[in-house]
From TrEMBL:
InterPro entries per record: ADH-like_N (IPR013154), ER (IPR020843), GroES-like_sf (IPR011032), Lipid_raft_assoc_Zn_ADH (IPR052585), NAD(P)-bd_dom_sf (IPR036291)
Signal sequence interval, chain numbering: none
Protein name listed in UniProt: Zinc-binding alcohol dehydrogenase family protein
An example molecular function term from Gene Ontology annotations: oxidoreductase activity
Location of the Enoyl reductase (ER) domain: 10-329
SMART domains on file: PKS_ER
Amino acid sequence: MKALAYRTAHPLDAFAIELIDTAEPRPRDTDLLVSVRAVGINPGEAAIRRTRGAAPGGRIILGFEFAGVVESVGARATGFAVGDRVLGTGDMSRDGAWAERLAVDHRVVARIPDGLSFTDAASLPIGGLTAWEALFRDRDGLAPGIDRVLIVGGAGGVGTMAAQLLKSRTTALVVSTASRPASREWCTATGADLVVDHTGDVPAQLRDAGIDRIDLVLSTSGTAGNVGWIAEVLRPFGHLAAVDLHGSVDLGPLIGRSVSVHTETVFSRITAGVDVAVQGGILAGLAADAVAGRLRPITTTVLDGLRVDTMRTAHELVESGRTVGKTVIRC
């Protein structure tokens, strides 16, 4: 089958993803074999491309957010049939969805309801699951005592899904950060009650708006450099959920406020083999909410064809830092 792959880590200006012929996936008993119809593009995939190369003689096929059609069902995969339209996330330890077909554990997959397109379905999994787990953990809502939430990076995929989940499932005040007119407008349109500029004095902007405390900060980008002002706006015993903590990060400013820190990566359940089916259930709920109008699919750019040129364009958009919502490639 055809797939997009690369061998060595590389920057955007030396883009080295190629269209290759590769062996068909070999599904496990718990897998579905899915014909891929659309893939969402994520900043995390661009970061992996820049920093992680394949083992000698190997290649890497990324793509952790997809929509497609079930071609076969493993002996221990339940709840699905050939021909079902599905969306899901895949698994970082296996080949991803930048290919004609994908083998994926059925527990991180959900059916696509009638009325939801492949492109819109492919915009939901990573942002939706990341936002859900960062905000709600194992609950169907916020923990008690959290009613003011600040989302850093409100115009991206995770931030956009977080704002919508908060407005559709809680009564919390939602503050998002954005620095450009287009991203500020997007944040307001997708649920933020207030938008502040993260390139300015965030604590002062909150005070000017009459907000004297934040209970939970969901930080989707720049967390290491923002710890100082995050500590200033969080109440004592508040909460920080971060999706981009890596390397050495000084959390010292948070200690005096006894802040709890929750790191989030969407692949933790499947990597650890813990409550994996929870994610399939969350995905099913997200898809149902999208069809019912409670959530707005976040596709803003659709590129046609899983090719080198469309993937390069998608990565240029992701790395520009100036997009809103989600870029999806229709296969």
